[in-house]
């Protein structure tokens, strides 16, 4: 058995652990990367959902936080984060409209829009506040966002409704596939520049060009973006390693698990989908990876168990062995945990609440 150097021997499994030293290295590296490229860092907090990490990001120079939902924004506003961007087209109706307005009255707030109807709803909710909207454009992920050349139309509609338009943003999500990072970064740059030109044609020199993801962060095209919003970089995960965006030494969060059963060369761990999350892209080599056993693969996943397969000749694991598991998608795993155990020097030194856990609305 190869016991990971960052796995406390007396830990109760399953649980999520954060290696404090690796986390700090990741935070500093991304802050330096943004600064060296003249790009503002607005870190995405949906990955960690944790104020202790947000505080570190802001102390290292992040200008504010990106969040995925109104609920996440409320949690971080309550914790004292006063500059927030809800980076998706918010449908501001009913109770959500009142919640948005309450946020806008206490923090500097930006909200994503990508349609005239969406703009109208946001305008009703935020009339008279200092909140801004940012037009989302599709750079190739084909999820939300308008075609870049139509960004000016949406922005002009927002202005007619009395909304402040900060600029444009995109998410190059198609970088989450093998060999796709470079093309996604190029598509992102092209889309943002085209959308910015469309705003200028409409008489709106708003200026913000916000993009960036962890897979594309290292491939920034100088001058295309002036704000980046990576999130996964704080922890990294099995996906980032398999995409080539990180290596195992940069994986700060893992699940601690115990071998509870053996079947030939296969072993079963006590950490299943309710700890690791169930995400598995079609290209992924398993349902997660074991950093200290790089040839092993999680070949099956149920709610409370993971089956690990070892190739012939690779050292296996004995019953009762403790192992580290890197989830495929760390954001999903964190959203399943109440706390993160913080380790340093092979010992648990703290625990941090996942304060925005489950704030999905």
Give the topology, please:
Layout: E1 15-19, H1 20-36, E2 40-44, H2 51-59, E3 64-67, H3 70-78, E4 83-89, H4 94-104, E5 108-113, H5 116-126, E6 132-136, H6 151-160, E7 164-169, H7 181-201, E8 208-211, H8 214-217, E9 227-228, H9 238-243, E10 253-263, E11 266-269, H10 273-276, E12 288-289, E13 297-301, E14 306-309, E15 322-327, H11 330-334, E16 339-344, E17 347-353
Parallel strand pairs: 1-16, 2-3, 2-9, 3-4, 4-5, 5-6, 6-7, 7-8, 8-9
Antiparallel strand pairs: 1-10, 10-11, 10-15, 11-14, 12-15, 13-14, 16-17
Helix pairs in contact: 3-4, 4-5, 6-7
Going by CATH, what is the homologous superfamily of the largest domain? Alanine racemase
Overall structural domain count: 2
What is the architecture of the largest domain at the second tier of CATH? Alpha-Beta Barrel
Low-pLDDT stretches: none
Mind telling me the CATH class of the largest domain? Alpha Beta
Largest sheet: 9 strands, mixed
Continuous helix count? 11
Assign an overall shape.
Answer: elongated
Oligomer: single chain
* Class per helix and strand makeup: alpha/beta
CATH fold-level assignment of the largest domain? TIM Barrel
Give the C-alpha Rg. Answer: 21 Å
Q: Indicate the proportion of strand residues.
A: 15-25%
């Amino acid at each position: 058995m190869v016991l990971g150097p960052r796995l406390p021997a007396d830990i109760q499994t399953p649980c999520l652990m954060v290696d404090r030293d690796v986390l700090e290295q990741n935070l500093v590296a991304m802050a330096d990367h943004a600064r060296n490229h003249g790009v503002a860092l607005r870190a995405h907090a949906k990955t960690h959902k944790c104020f202790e990490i947000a505080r570190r990001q802001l102390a290292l120079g992040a200008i504010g936080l990106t969040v995925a939902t109104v609920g996440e924004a409320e949690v971080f506003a309550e914790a004292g984060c006063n500059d927030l961007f809800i980076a998706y087209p918010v449908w501001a109706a009913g109770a959500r409209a009142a919640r948005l307005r309450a946020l806008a009255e206490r923090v500097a707030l930006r909200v994503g829009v990508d349609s005239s109807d969406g703009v109208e709803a946001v305008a009703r909710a935020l009339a008279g506040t200092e909140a801004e909207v940012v037009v989302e454009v599709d750079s190739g992920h084909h999820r939300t966002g308008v075609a870049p050349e139509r960004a000016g139309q949406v922005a002009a509609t927002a202005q007619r409704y009395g909304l402040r338009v900060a600029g444009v943003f995109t998410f190059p999500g198609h970088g989450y596939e093998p060999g796709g990072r470079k093309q996604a970064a190029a598509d992102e740059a092209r889309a943002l520049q085209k959308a910015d030109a469309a705003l200028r044609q409409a008489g709106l020199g708003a200026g913000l060009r916000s993009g960036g993801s962890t897979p594309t962060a290292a491939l920034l095209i100088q001058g295309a973006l002036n704000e980046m919003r990576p999130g996964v970089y704080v922890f990294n995960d099995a996906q980032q390693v398999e995409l080539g965006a990180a290596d195992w030494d940069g994986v700060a969060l893992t699940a601690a698990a115990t071998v509870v059963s053996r079947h030939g060369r296969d072993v079963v761990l006590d950490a299943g989908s309710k700890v690791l999350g169930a995400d598995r892209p079609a290209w992924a080599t398993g349902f997660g990876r074991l950093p200290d056993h790089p040839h092993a693969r999680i070949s099956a996943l149920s709610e409370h168990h993971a089956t690990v397969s070892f190739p012939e000749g690779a050292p296996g694991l004995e019953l009762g062995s403790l192992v580290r598991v890197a989830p495929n998608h760390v954001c999903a795993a964190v959203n399943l945990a109440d706390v993160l155990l913080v380790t340093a020097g092979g010992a648990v030194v703290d625990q941090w609440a996942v304060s925005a856990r489950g704030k999905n609305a």
